[in-house]
Specification:
With 287 residues, this protein is an alpha/beta fold. It has two domains: 175 residues, HUPs (Rossmann fold, 3-Layer(aba) Sandwich); 92 residues, 2-Layer Sandwich (Pantoate--beta-alanine Ligase, Chain: A,domain 2), CATH 3.30.1300. Helices cover 37% and strands 20% of the residues. The chain contains nine helices and nine strands. Strands 1-4-3-2-5-6 form a six-stranded parallel sheet, with helices on both faces. Strand 8 and strand 9 form a beta hairpin. Helix 6 packs across helix 7 and helix 8 runs antiparallel to helix 9.
Length: 287
Amino acid sequence: MSRLVTTRTELADALSARRRAGERVGFVPTMGALHEGHASLMTRARTEVGTGPLVVSVFVNPLQFGPGEDLDRYPRTLDADLEVCAAHGVDLVFAPAVDEVYPTWPPAVTVDPGPLGSVLDGASRPGHFTGVLTVVAKLFGLVRPDVAVFGQKDYQQLVLIRRMAADLCLGVDVVGAETVREPDGLALSSRNRYLDPEQRRDALALSRTLRAAAEAAPYGVGAALDAARAELRAAPGVDLDYLELVLPDLAPLPDDVPAGTEARALIAARVGSTRLIDNLPLTIGRP
C-alpha cells in the first residue's frame, strides 16, 4: 500500500527516519493520469534505489500551461493513480494542493531554462519550460531525492532537467528511461485519452515518421528528412508543429555530419485538438 501525503510537513516526516538511516531516495515526478509508461519509470527508480524509499508526486503544475492549453481538462485520476503506485512498490505518493507548492502566486522566483528553453517545444509553448524547471526544482527541494527518473518521450524536458541539476549543483542523479509504446508504436501519453478512434489511427503517423527517418539515416541527414516528410505527406489529420534532427544534447547538427554521428529525431503535431510529441534516436551515415 502506498502512503498518500499532501503537505510538505507530512512528506518530510515520512522520509526523515529512512534518510537518517542512509537509504537512497528515489523519485518519479508526474502530473498523474498514470499509465504503463509511468509504471516503467517507477520500476526503473526501484532498481536504482533498491529497498530505499520511492516517492511519486502527482501534481498538475499550472505554471507550465500557457493560455488556451488544457490545464482545466487535464485528467485528474488520483484514486486510480494510487492503485498504480501501490502495484509498483511506491512507498509515498505526494499529491499536494497548488498553494502547498506555490505559497505565493504567481511565484516571485522562477528557473530560467536559457536559450534551450525557447526552441522546439519552447518555441511553440513560450514559458513552458520555465514552469517545468521551476516545479521540478521545487519538488527536488522538497523530496531531496538521490535519483529521479524521467521518461525520454519528453526528451527536451529531460535534457533541460539534467542541465539544471548539473548547473545548479542539485545533487540529483537524473535518469532517462526509454519511451513505452503501444504494440502499434504509439508512444504512451496521458493525452492519448483525448483521441477518438479515428484520431488515434492518425496519431500513428508520428511514430511512423520517426521510424522512417531512423531507417533512412544511414544514407545521411537529407535522406532521413526526405523519408520522414514523405511519411507525413501521406498522413491525414496531422497538423505538424515541428520535425527536427538534432544532436543528443539538442544542439543543431553540423553542416558536415561525420559518419556514425548519434542524433535524435523529434516531432510535435496536433491530431484534432490534441498536441502530441515523440522522438527516436538514430545514427547518421554509415560508421
